[in-house]
TrEMBL record:
Residues 476-501, 521-541, 881-906, 1227-1281 are annotated as: Disordered. Its main location: nucleus. This is Condensin complex subunit 1. The lineage of its organism: Eukaryota, Metazoa, Chordata, Craniata, Vertebrata. It is found in: Chromosome; Cytoplasm; Nucleus. It comes from Myripristis murdjan. The gene is ncapd2. PANTHER family: CONDENSIN, CONDENSIN COMPLEX SUBUNIT 1.
């Protein structure tokens, strides 16, 4: 027999054992090595010497060893290949001598043994070098990869022959098979065997082992070895999956799958739970094997299902994936038999159970399996609603991966559903009710019909038998003597003939007589067949109706689940987890592409994400809109441009200002990579879709040229004779002109006389000079027109006047005069009379004084406020800039006029900052003086409208028209921004309007106006801060929303100091309106980014919210505190808050306050230092522990601390818990503290009942209360004022907080 190890060859052996008697020295190996295959048996000593001499891995790097081993390997490959060529003829020979057979057998054994052992040695050397340094394997054996393939190929060729006849009784020795298999398994241990470059080697090993399994009885050994290698080499899972698949299909050894799966199935849960058990390899192996041969897994699936109850989640995942592959590729379709359907239903039930698995990884993978099943259309229709409902439930899972997988599954359901998802559940409700009623009527009608009597065949025969017998006898018997004689003669002559007739002839005769007889005509007609046909038709119609009703029910159920899923996923668009947001965006795109009902809600809701700081989210939203709306289809460029413009036009229908800004950002982001840019621009101007184009023109100089080249077209279409018909188009035209105009540079150059040097500016200014008076005429005429869009156009037009006009104050003065004159003329001419007595101007209903249209008066007041605002802005920006320019020119001239002697003094003053500072102060003082004394002087037209504004605002009962009151309130706030004196004079009136106005729109806009005034005059508004916070508890949701938005901007911009009033914002965390709740949550999220802000405010917030006068429920208090305490993450802050909250037990007066403080303590992320501080403050709360509301929260702290605590900490927790329980059960007066015991032992006092008094808090040092001031993380927007309204069409776009409020609302 062949030895198992090469080292055994040099030992003395017994009978019939290979022995090497002479070991050649290393120096003589090269000369003794002969490459001749004919003398191979004589070369055994030389070949064995190679193993004996170079059996150490390090020897491969010695000089000359590589050549010797390469030569030896090449010789052995030639020998084995030669045997594979020569043996077939030898094996086919019938007359073979025993000696020849033995010689060939020895040659096979020796060659295979030496080749396998040398291969193992070389493989070990290469793996050793690969593990040491990368790239060193090639230095040891450059061509090992190709030689390894040659070795495997030679062995396969040899072993594929029927060499078993060389052995006695055709029994191949186990040692021989083991020699080859050990070599194969050694090669499989290479770490790179699973790489792509090792595919030829991998395939060779698989086929070699396949031959051994099929022909050499290696089945059991292979199954055991597969399990062992999987347990130690995780990278072999895919290799063995491919191997087992090949062995079972190409080599027909299907039993190998059963053996391997049985070995895995017999692994216990405890064994798989141990480290190094190879559970990951087993799981990966099963998953990949099921993907290759799923039909062969079914007979052995019962062995694997036992692992579903085990502790290893990896095995549960693998089994679920196996079930999924079987359901997708085997148990699918309508051609299954009853057994297949039963297996399919059982497998689906198993998967559904594990949608609620305890491990999140299992739940996620089962959802992914279902996604593949749905995409493959392998899910039975009867399970759609059930599985989809489970998927919707998984959207609320705590695991991010489970939520993502659930969203993907729902998207697959929508993409492959058999129902009509374009209809909503509301649309399906009426058809379902109609068809259900029809089905009910059909069933009632069928039940009401009398049953038809069914006559059995036996009864029918019994009724007709007597008459039938009479008729037969009458026909067969002779009726006359002649017939009798003829019959007798015939009978006599034909006796033999009659005897020869058989019964069949008689039967035929009878049948003929029956057909001729009139009996059949005399039978009564039976309607049974007709009734049965009618009944079959009715049954068929009933079944069709039942199927229709069932389909409508399933469709309605599916629509309800889709709507529920959409509503949940839409809320996920603003989660903090990026991956979930990306999946939600993709889901919204999917439902929109399939035209699902209510799909646009998610598409519109994800629009604000274009401002996200996360680049991945922003890019996903942009690509989503590009895929849905900005991906034009068409054969020509113009058709593509038209399609693109039409899509944008659809988005603009009923779009809010925020939606428009988001769309502008998206379009500007992808506009310059659009293939149809020139045609798009041209077509856009033809459609006058300036609403989108205005933003794009601000990004590229070339697009500005396009606008300027089409400026005449814009003006003629939008600002021409028909401007009063479409103020929105006129407004957008003015915005576009403003966006392409650098007004400061153009105006400066215009005043300096350099207009010709700026072609852009000159073109705009030329247009402006020509159309200024037309614009003024349109503005003045619009005052007496009741157009809802005139005010937005007016605000942009006045802005353009102040941007480009040489003397905008004079132009606006003329505008106010003309507008007031037109309104007076309307009153004098008996214009439209306002019938509402509360809306009269200047008199009661019974007086003869003329009445004015309230809408027209509101528009005039809005114009006054807008002019006042832009006049202040003009002075503080343009005029101030011009003054600085002139001062700079003057200083330059003075520098030139001054000699070198004065340069030193000027340089010193300039270095100290005295020159610039004093000059700027002088200019600022000049501007303030102008605003204080001149803007509202008697000779200025603006002053004439101020008394009217005050009168309208101070008489809400008399002037109750919403638009008039709103316009007057905002105009008054804009007047108040002129100077501090005007603000102080009317601030009380504005707050009175805020508190007492019955119109929510007035209160909401008053909050915005007061926010702007707070930014401009913070010292004047500071005493009124409490009144602003009071609006957070307004009964109207829109007012609360506006209040929290404005206060958020003021606090985060450090305009308002953070004080205890923030507790009013905390109350909004439980507001019934979800949008307000999200705004409040966003406020605290932003506030938490400022150092220690929420930490410093928490004690005051707790005190205010637990105040008995507020009457807040315990549940609401817990909800608010849970959110606020989530921002406390630092251990030092937790420790300090424990002390502060414990000290507040002393000042708390009611049991409810004690309970709130205890709950607050339990919400902290307590640590060891926090427990220590809690024990130190024992005296603060120990006398309150008898209350369950105090004891239970503090007891929950010990439960949290005990989780994962060290033994020392756990002992402290147990001791503290015992102390809490003792005081709670027996009372503080009956429990003596350890400190008291020590004092009693030291002082020798008697053990009398001691009454404990809570001592006053003592501090080591006096700490002054710190004032919290926050640094602003953004610059204030200097563009705006107090004119933006968000709840009324009467709003301006230049509010100081407009951008911040809008972005925050998003």
């Amino acid at each position: 027999p062949a030895p198992r190890l090469a080292s055994l060859l040099i030992l003395t052996g017994g009978i019939n054992q290979y022995v090497v008697q002479d070991v050649v020295s290393p120096k003589q190996l090269a000369s003794h090595l002969n490459r001749s295959c004919l003398g191979f048996l004589q070369q055994l000593s030389v070949l064995t010497s190679v193993f004996h001499t170079y059996r150490f891995q390090g020897s491969i790097e010695k000089p000359g060893t590589r050549v010797v081993k390469e030569d030896t390997l090449e010789l052995l490959i030639q020998v084995v290949s030669g045997l594979a060529v020569s043996l077939p003829s030898f094996l086919q020979s019938t007359s073979v001598l025993a000696a020849n057979r033995k010689e060939q057998l020895n040659a096979v054994k020796m060659s295979v043994f030496l080749l396998c052992k040398l291969t193992e040695t070389l493989e070990s050397c290469v793996c050793h070098l690969q593990g040491g340094k990368k790239g060193k394997a090639g230095e040891g054996l450059l061509q090992w990869d190709s030689e390894r393939e040659s070795v495997l190929q030679a062995l396969v060729q040899l072993l594929q022959l029927d060499i078993r006849s060389l052995w006695s009784l055709s029994l191949v020795e186990e040692e021989f098979v083991s020699c080859v298999t050990c070599c194969c398994y050694k090669l499989l241990e290479n770490p790179t065997i699973s790489h792509v470059k090792s595919k030829p080697t991998r395939d060779g090993i698989i086929h070699l082992l396949g031959v051994l399994i099929k022909k050499y009885n290696h089945l059991l050994g292979a199954s055991v070895k597969v399990i062992q290698l999987l347990q130690h080499f995780e990278q072999l899972s895919s290799v063995f999956a491919q191997a087992v698949s090949v062995w079972s299909t190409e080599y027909g050894v299907r039993a190998i799958i059963g053996e391997v799966i049985r070995e895995i199935g017999q692994k216990s849960s405890e064994e798989l739970a141990r480290e190094g058990s190879g559970v990951k390899s087993f799981a990966s192996f099963l998953s990949e094997l099921s993907g290759l041969v799923p039909e062969l897994m079914i007979p052995n699936i019962s062995v694997l299902i036992t692992h579903l109850e085990g502790e290893s989640h990896n095995m549960r995942v693998a089994v679920c994936e196996v079930l999924g592959e079987i359901l997708v590729r085997v148990l699918c379709g309508d051609g299954l038999d009853e057994s297949g359907k039963a297996d399919r239903d059982r497998f689906f039930d198993t998967l559904q159970e594990h949608l609620h698995d305890t491990h999140s990884h299992v739940r996620a993978r089962v959802l992914q399996v279902y996604t593949r099943i749905v995409n493959s259309k392998a899910l039975p229709l009867c399970r759609y609603s059930e599985v989809m409902e489970l998927a919707v439930g998984r959207l609320m899972d705590k695991s991010v991966n489970v939520v993502k997988s659930a969203i993907q599954l729902l998207a697959a359901f929508i993409a492959h559903n058999p129902y009509s998802c374009k209809l909503s559940s509301a649309d399906l409700k009426k058809p379902l009710e109609k068809e259900t009623a029809k089905l009910k009527m059909m069933k009632e009608r069928q039940e009401g019909e009398k049953p038809v009597a069914v006559i059995k065949a036996s009864e029918l025969w019994a009724a007709m038998e007597p008459e039938l017998l009479v008729t037969v006898r009458a026909e067969l018997e002779p009726t006359s003597e002649t017939e009798k004689q003829q019959q007798e003669g015939v009978e006599t002559g034909m006796v033999e003939e009659k005897e020869a007739e058989d019964d069949r002839a008689t039967a035929v005769q009878i049948a003929q007589l029956l057909r001729v007889n009139k009996y059949s005509q005399n039978l009564p007609p039976t309607p049974q067949k007709e009734k049965e046909a009618e009944k079959e038709g009715e049954d068929s119609e009933l079944k069709k109706q039942e199927m229709l009703v069932q389909y409508l029910r399933d469709t309605e159920t599916f629509a309800l689940l889709v709507e529920r899923a959409i509503s949940i996923i839409n809320t996920m668009l603003y989660l903090k987890t990026t991956s979930v947001v990306l999946e939600a965006v993709q889901f919204c795109v999917t439902v929109c592409e399939f035209s699902v009902a209510d799909s646009l809600s998610g598409v519109r809701k994800m629009l604000p994400l274009v401002w996200s700081a996360d680049a991945a989210i922003k890019d996903a939203v942009v690509q989503a809109y590009r895929r849905l709306y900005l991906n034009p289809q068409g054969d020509t460029t113009r058709v593509k441009a038209q399609t693109l413009v039409d899509s944008l036009s659809e988005l603009m229908v009923d779009a809010s200002l925020g939606t428009i800004q988001c769309l502008e950002e998206i379009v500007s982001y992808i506009f310059f990579i659009t293939l149809t840019k020139p045609a798009f621009t041209s077509f856009l101007f033809q459609k006058c879709l300036l609403l989108v184009h205005q933003r794009m023109c601000a990004f590229n100089r070339t697009e500005r040229e396009v606008v300027l080249s089409n400026l005449d077209t814009l003006c003629s279409v939008a600002l021409g004779e028909k401007v009063t018909e479409d103020f929105l188009l006129a407004r957008d035209t003015v915005i576009t002109i403003c966006s392409i105009t650098d007004h400061v540079r153009v105006r400066t150059c215009y005043k300096a006389g350099f207009v010709t040097a700026l072609p852009d500016g000159s073109r705009v200014l030329t247009f402006f000079i020509i159309s200024t008076y037309g614009l003024l005429f349109v503005l003045a005429s619009g005052v007496v027109m009741e157009d809802p869009h005139w005010q937005s156009f007016m605000e942009q037009a006045v802005r353009l006047l102040y941007f480009l006009a040489e003397s905008p104050d004079q132009l606006c003065s003329r505008l106010l005069q003309r507008s007031a004159r037109l309104l007076s003329d309307q009153i004098a001419e008996g214009g439209e009379v306002n019938k509402d007595a509360g809306q009269l101007q200047g008199g009661s209903q019974d007086s003869d004084e003329p009445m004015v249209n309230c809408v027209c008066l509101a528009q005039l007041l809005a114009l006054c406020g807008c002019v006042a605002f832009w006049q202040v802005s003009h002075l503080e920006r343009s005029v101030s800039t011009e003054l600085r320019r002139r001062r700079g020119e003057k200083e330059e001239r003075e520098e030139k006029e001054k000699g070198p002697s004065n340069k030193t003094k000027s340089a010193v003053e300039e270095e100290l900052g005295l020159i610039g500072a004093s000059a700027e102060d002088t200019e600022a003082e000049l501007i303030r003086k102008i605003c204080e004394t001149e803007l509202l002087a008697e000779e200025n037209l603006l002053s004439a409208f101020l008394p009217l504004l005050v009168k309208v605002c101070s008489s809400p009962g008399r002037y109750s028209h919403p638009q008039l009151t709103t316009a007057a309130c905002l105009a008054l706030s804009q007047y108040m921004m002129i100077s501090p004196s005007v603000c102080e004079d009317h601030i009380r009136l504005l707050f009175t309007v805020l508190e007492r106005s019955t119109l929510p729109v007035v209160r909401a806009n008053a909050i915005i106006a007061l926010g702007d005034l707070t930014v401009r005059f913070p010292n004047i508004l500071e005493p009124w801060t409490q009144n602003l916070y009071a609006r957070l508890s307004d009964e109207v949701p829109s007012v609360r929303q506006t209040a929290v938005t404005v206060l958020t901007q003021l606090v985060l911009k450090d305009v308002l100091k953070v004080k205890g009033q923030v507790s009013e914002v905390a109350v909004l965390l439980i507001d019934p309106q979800p949008h307000i709740t999200s705004l409040a949550l966003n406020f605290f999220n932003e506030l938490a980014t400022k150092d220690n802000a929420i930490y410093n405010l928490l004690p005051d917030i707790i005190s205010r919210l637990s105040d008995p006068d507020r009457g807040m429920s315990a549940e609401d208090f817990n909800t608010i505190m849970k959110q606020l305490f989530s921002y406390i993450t630092k251990e030092r802050q937790t420790e300090s808050l424990v002390e502060k909250l414990c000290q507040r037990f002393r000042t708390a007066k009611t049991e409810r306050q004690w309970c709130d403080l205890a709950v607050s303590l339990s919400l902290l992320s307590m640590c060891e230092r926090g427990l220590k501080r809690l024990q130190e403050c024992w005296e603060c709360y120990s006398d309150k522990l008898t209350e369950p509301g105090v004891y239970q929260p503090l007891l929950s702290i010990t439960a949290k601390l005990r989780r994962g605590a060290k033994p020392q900490l756990k002992a402290q927790v147990d001791e503290f818990e015992k102390r809490l329980t003792a005081v709670h059960t027996r009372g503080l007066e009956n429990v003596e503290s350890p400190e008291m015991e020590e004092e009693s032992q030291k002082g020798g006092e008697s053990s009398e009942k001691t009454v404990l008094h809570t001592p006053l808090p003592t501090r080591g040092r006096n700490r002054s209360k710190r004032v919290i001031t926050f640094s602003s993380d953004e610059e204030e927007d200097e563009e705006g004022g107090c004119s933006r309204l968000i709840h009324s069409p009467l709003y301006s776009q230049h509010n100081l907080l407009s951008k911040e409020i809008y972005v925050f609302c998003l």
